[in-house]
Amino acid sequence: MNFEQNNNLKNESLEPNEISDPSSKEVSNNDSIISEQELIDLKKKDEEKTNFELAKIRESISGNLDNDKESERVFDLTIKEGETDFDFLGRLSKFLVDKQEIQNIKNNPDGNDKIIKLLKKKEDQINEVYQDKDNEKLIRLSFIEATKSLGNSELLNNKENERCLNDIDISISSRNMSWDLNEKSKHEDRINFFSETNQERSFFPSRYKKDNIYYSGSLFNVHSNSPEAREYLKNKLDGKVIYLLGGGKSVNDLLQDNQINPKQIVNIDPFISEEDIEKNKKGFYRSIPERADSKNLIEKINNEKIELADEIWASYSVPFYNESVEEIDNLISNIKGLLKEGGNCRITPISTQNEKAKQAMLYNLKQIVDSKEYNIHANKDTLIIHKLFINRN
Smallest Cα–Cα separation from 329: which of 305, 350, 353, 360? Predict the structure, then answer.
């Protein structure tokens, strides 16, 4: 296992415009000056934070360290009652990561946590465990089981919905639009702003650092390119109508894939600078230049005679860039109105631009749960809103 690429980890306690360089007496960046003592204090603070996180890891799994049988525990391939395929695959990822962390701690009994520290970045760790040959058989068997579970209709799960609602963690977005845009900004300014973000995320697992938050991983808990994983995704997506909310120029690999054939992919995004004609080679892609939080979106979709969605995907778009209560209210209203019964809206990350939008998101999720027409699921940074089939008898 190669950890050399992680030797230059950023000091996460520093602001983006600060530079950590202990070898210099002062560090100048624009108009800010950081003294040597301030750098030492920041470094100390970061080390304390890291040590606290490591202590939590040790505490959570320390019971396994003295018991080889327990630490080599077997993953339960049975999908439990009330567990969705998304939950099941999330449990697989957690098992693989926990197993690796246990092994690393056992290999460092004297408290040398350097390796564990380097593995703390979630995306890197997930990629490592799914590429580990020792895990290959378990991963392939897990996707076979997940595929077998498809086709079963979800039933209302009040207990799980309430638990999820109470536990859900909505953060404030790491990228604040107000740094670059305001209410006077023109449409062209917004196009330019979003063109500087990553608008080209892949769908399938990718080894390129630029694509470490690929759609299949963040929205489906699929971090494998094995034939079994592809078959699982084919069963999930073949013949389905998929909406991308603020999809930019993403999922080109899915659009060109020869195995998986959605019925239609509709990209709802007014901030694309230009469309690539190659995206529609297979004839099922189109884009709608409308905001996902527009009051006119449902009318626009109906006027265009576009079928309602089996799947709605939002990756680092909405509510990540939503700023107001009105935007959140409109967004959730559109999701509810455009999603078919039995369909899923998948959102990552569970973030908004500010506290007002965050509270609006929590309020709307409570309304969704209280309606008893949906189940909600959350895993790490991903939220799934599942619209239940309504019994009309």
Answer: 360
Determine the Cα–Cα distance for residues 249 and 58; give it in Å rounded to an integer.
41
Q: Which two tokens stand for residue 174?
A: 């790491």
* Cβ proximity of 285 and 255 under 8 Å: yes
Instruction: Name the CA radius of gyration of the chain, rounded.
Output: 22
Positions of CATH 3.40.50 in the chain: 158-197+238-387
What are the two backbone dihedrals, phi and then psi, of residue 54, each rounded to the nearest 5 degrees?
-65, -35
Domain 158-197+238-387 has CATH 3.40.50: yes
Alpha carbon dihedral 345, 349, 354, 357, in 10-degree steps, equals 10
Decide if 118 contacts 9 (C-beta within 8 A): yes
Phi, psi angles (nearest 5°) of residue 308: -60, 165
User: Shortest CA distance to 248 belongs to which of 162, 320, 332?
Assistant: 320
Per-residue pLDDT of the chain (393 residues; tens, 9 = 90+): 333 333 333 333 333 333 334 333 343 344 444 456 655 666 666 666 656 655 655 555 444 444 444 444 689 999 998 899 999 999 999 999 888 878 777 777 665 555 555 445 566 788 889 999 999 999 999 999 999 999 888 999 999 999 999 999 999 987 776 656 667 676 666 655 656 555 689 999 986 655 468 999 999 999 999 999 999 999 999 999 999 999 998 999 999 999 999 999 999 999 887 766 567 888 999 999 999 999 999 999 999 999 999 999 999 999 999 999 999 999 999 999 999 999 999 999 999 999 999 999 999 999 999 999 999 999 889 999 999 998 866
Residue 102 tokens read as 């246990």
Measure Cα distances from 224 to 128, 207, 353 in Å. 11, 11, 32
The tally of CA atoms less than 13 A away on the side-chain side of residue 60 is: 12
Would you say 221 and 90 are in contact if contact means Cβ atoms under 8 Å apart? yes
* CA–CA dist 335, 328 (Å, integer): 11
**Which amino acid would we find at residue 199?**
Q
Distance CA 99, CA 72 (A): 8
Measure the CA–CA gap between 153 and 352, rounded to whole angstroms: 31
Q: Look at the alpha carbons of 235, 237, 229, 227 in this order and tell me if their dihedral is positive or negative.
A: positive
103 CB-near residues (< 8 Å, 6+ apart): 71
Spell out the alpha helix ranges (H) of the chain. Answer: 36-65, 68-71, 85-106, 114-118, 122-131, 136-148, 158-167, 187-195, 215-220, 227-237, 252-255, 297-303, 325-338, 355-371
